[in-house]
Amino acid sequence: MAGTLRGATYTRIYAVVRRIPRGRVATYGQVAALADLPGRARLVGYALAALAGESDLPWHRVVNAAGRVSIRDAEPAMQLQRALLTREGVTFSGSGAIPLARFRWLPKASRRG
DNA sequence: TTTATGGCTGTCA
DNA sequence: ATGACAGCCATAA
Fold it and tell me: Which end of chain A has fewer CB atoms < 10 Å from its terminal CB, N or C?
């Protein structure tokens, strides 16, 4: 796509997030890697933060490497994320972390079309 | 243009 | 187990 170079990063990140299946989660670093942006996990965080929770994107399916919601406790979106995930069947362990070994999204083919 | 700000992550103490 | 630090670098002001 010629022309849309600026802002292509977020767009690419959103495209990956949109592919995370229901009941699964991915880490920021994982999304970054799938978006062909290895090592830019933070950018994923910025991209999602920019959504401000107002989007049809399954932003709640993205958690940090520890399997925890990476939003500050004071943010209402923090509990929202947990609620949305729970509603999809994702369970949190006693310490409030998602067992990634069980719920991590494993894309069979990381082909970018 | 320069600064400031991050919904991260791996490493080390 | 937790906490501090240093790299990542796009956006917004």
Answer: C
Task: Answer whether any strand C atom is within 7 A of the Cβ of A73.
Answer: no
- Answer whether any strand C atom is within 7 A of the Cβ of A6: yes
Give the residues across from A26 on adjacent strands: A62
Strand B bases near protein CB (under 7 Å) are: 6-10
Neighbours of A29 (CB within 10 A): 17
User: By the 8 A CB rule, do A23 and A90 touch?
Assistant: yes
Please write the tens of the pLDDT for every residue from A54-73: 678 999 999 999 999 998 88
Tokens of A79: 């509990």
A53 touches strand B (CB under 7 A): yes
Percentage of chain A beyond pLDDT 70 is 86
Hey, which residues does A62 pair with through a beta bridge? A26
Q: Tell me: the pLDDT tens digits for A38-59? A: 889 999 999 998 886 667 899 9
| Strand runs labelled E in A1-113 | 26-27, 62-63
